[in-house]
């Protein structure tokens, strides 16, 4: 290699090295991807799972008569209804599945009487919390009628409803305030090396952009229809179908556990 080529190579290496050291693209892109991943995880954790609420409803609202049974089912169904109302506003799939409020009635998440009550309240803002309010009222009425036997159980049921509502509020907040994109943070005139770095990290950016809208229709987005169907089916099963159906208490054969443990 001639000295002239060595000199050109050295100057080129220094030029690239200087811009690589001063470029803030890696920092900005890393921050953006980290924020998107954290956002996706928070949305998943707060999409709302009915099991905890349903278990307390099953254990704290006593009685085998039709009124007690309908009370348990209605409390759980109203929680699922509130989830549907939130997801209709933030998920494309759920909006297409339930394009109107009447479609929620047809799907069994809401009764005609509840729809009339819901629409009778004129409010310029969201009303997803209204079914939660109905559930709280049902719990308080159950306490007055003796279906909930003490105030501690009443408080715990209301706390579970409150926790479920807070999860839905988190989804609403994240949808209301979107994550700002990083593109406006770059200068209008970009240095050459920043553009080259961007080409190297464009795949990283695409991953983040795919995660940015967690409630879209892509295959990798959260399947909100699954969560809705699962919550309603699981919740009603816990408070109705499977309630008080347990195996009989029987002692296991003597030393059966220790003998099976010794085999391993």
UniProtKB/TrEMBL annotation:
Alphabetically ordered keywords of this record: Cell membrane, Chloride, Chloride channel, Ion channel, Ion transport, Membrane, Transmembrane, Transmembrane helix, Transport
InterPro entries named in the record: Bestrophin, Bestrophin-like
GO cellular component term of the entry, any: chloride channel complex
Pfam families referenced in this protein's UniProt entry, alphabetically: Bestrophin
GO terms of molecular function: chloride channel activity
Membrane topology annotation: Multi-pass membrane protein
Domain of life: Eukaryota
Record has Nuclease as a keyword: no
Localization (cell): Cell membrane; Membrane
Family: Belongs to the anion channel-forming bestrophin (TC 1.A.46) family. Calcium-sensitive chloride channel subfamily.
Function: Forms chloride channels.
Protein name, as recorded: Bestrophin homolog
Source organism of this protein record: Litomosoides sigmodontis (Filarial nematode worm)
């Amino acid at each position: 290699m001639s000295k002239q080529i060595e000199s050109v190579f050295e100057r080129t290496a220094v030029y690239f090295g200087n811009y690589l050291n001063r470029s803030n693209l890696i920092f900005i892109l890393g921050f953006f991807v980290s924020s998107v991943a954290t956002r996706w995880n928070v949305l998943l954790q707060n999409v709302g799972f009915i099991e905890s609420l349903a278990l307390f409803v099953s254990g704290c609202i006593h009685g085998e008569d039709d009124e007690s049974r309908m009370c348990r089912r209605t409390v759980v169904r109203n929680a699922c209804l509130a989830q549907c109302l939130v997801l209709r506003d933030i998920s494309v799939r759920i909006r297409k599945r339930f394009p109107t409020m009447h479609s929620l009635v047809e799907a069994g998440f809401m009764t005609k009487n509840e729809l009339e009550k819901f629409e009778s309240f004129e409010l310029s803002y969201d009303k997803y919390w209204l079914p939660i309010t109905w559930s709280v009222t049902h719990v308080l009425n159950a306490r007055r009628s003796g279906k909930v036997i003490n105030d501690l159980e009443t408080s715990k049921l209301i706390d579970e409803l409150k926790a479920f509502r807070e999860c839905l509020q988190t989804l609403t907040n994240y949808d209301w305030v979107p994550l700002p994109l990083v593109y406006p943070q770059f200068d209008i005139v970009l240095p050459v090396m920043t553009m080259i770095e961007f080409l190297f990290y464009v795949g990283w950016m695409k991953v983040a952009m795919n995660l940015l809208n967690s409630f879209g229709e892509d295959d990798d987005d959260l399947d909100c229809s699954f969560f809705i169907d699962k919550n309603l089916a699981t919740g009603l099963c816990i408070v109705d179908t499977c309630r008080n159906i347990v195996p009989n208490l029987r002692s296991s054969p003597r030393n059966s556990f220790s003998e099976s443990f010794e085999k391993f």
